[in-house]
Each structure stands twice: as structure tokens, then as C-alpha cells.
Amino acid sequence: MPAFLKLCLVFLKIGVVFFGGGYVLIPLLHRIMVDQMRWLSLKEFLDGVALSQLTPGPLAMLATFTGYKAGGLPGALAATVCIFLPCTVLMLLISSRYHHFRRIEAVRHFLDGILPAVVGLVFAAAFTLGRTSLASARDFLLLAAGFALLQFTAIAPMAVILGAAAVGLLLRFS
């Protein structure tokens, strides 16, 4: 299969399961982008995840980054379109019948069953990222500070991310 078509197919498949927020997909994206396809190195993947936090639709932007690395500008465009296409089509189909669907008991049970799995996937994503990026006491201190700020204050996540970046820069050049 030509590389461009393979790129499109991979991101269409990811787009089909891209619900519950991007964080639930980190283990899947890591396996595909780093381990299987080798489009990104582990460092590039972690950098892409970190940089994508500065954009709307965080992990979807990782698709753009990966598409660019794998196929230049056409690859970036294709990966971005393909990751959003399935959910866009699905939402267009479902939204017109939303009031009908929400009354169906099986649908409510289905969604109730997904929630614990999503929590597990978020935990797996945190574990995967933590295992590869927490190497020093400083890293764990920043993790604890970020968690405490987000959990116990009203500080915006973007402020915490930018603050951690500033601390990293200060420590790097001091």
C-alpha cells in the first residue's frame, strides 16, 4: 500500500475511536506512531504531546505533527482531515437524532459502560508518559505541583503548562 494511503487509513482508524478526549488515545497513538509505524521517535512523540497541549484539540494536533513528519505538508493535511473525518460524520448523523437516542436505555447503559474504560485509558496514558518522562526529583516535584494547582485551585491548565515550561527554562539556563 502506498505510504500516503497507509497514513490516511491509519488516521481514519484512529479517528473512529477518537472519543472521550485525546488523552485516552495516548497509549494507542504511542503504539502506532512510535512502535509500529516508526513515524516518530519516542522523544519526538513526547515533544509532540507536550507541544500539542498549547493548541486547541491537543492530541489531534499530534496527528498533524506526525503526518508532517511522515509525509510533509500533504501528510500533515491528510492526517488532520482523516483523524477528524469519522467523528465529524458520526456527530452529524447522531446530532440530528440526539433527542431520540438519549431516551434509549441501551444507549444510556452503553455510555455508562464506556466511562470506567475511559478512566482506565487516561490512567494508562499517564503511566506511559510518566514512565518515559519522569526521570528526576525535579520532574516529580513539577508533577506534584501541577497536580496540586489543577486539583485545588482555579488556575487554568494553560497557566500551569506555561509555568512549568518557564520553570524548565529557568532551571536549564541557571
Describe this structure in words.
The chain has eight helices and no strands. It has 174 residues and is mainly alpha-helical. It folds into two domains: 3-133, no CATH class; 135-174. Helix 1 (3-16) crosses helix 4, helix 3 crosses helix 4 and helix 7 (137-152) packs antiparallel against helix 8. It starts with a helix and ends with a helix. 21% of the residues are buried.
Write a short abstract of this structure.
This protein is an all-alpha fold and 174 residues long. It contains eight helices and no strands.
As residue ranges, the low-confidence spans are none
Structural class: mainly alpha
Number of helices: 8
Instruction: Please outline the major beta sheet.
Output: none
Q: Quaternary status of these chains?
A: single chain
Give the SSE string. Answer: HHHHHHHH
- What is the terminal separation in angstroms? 50 Å
The total domain count is 2
* Fraction in beta strands: under 5%
Helix content: over 70%
What is the β-strand count?
A: 0
Describe the global form: globular
Report the mean per-residue pLDDT as an integer. Answer: 86
User: Radius of gyration in whole Å, from Cα?
Assistant: 18 Å
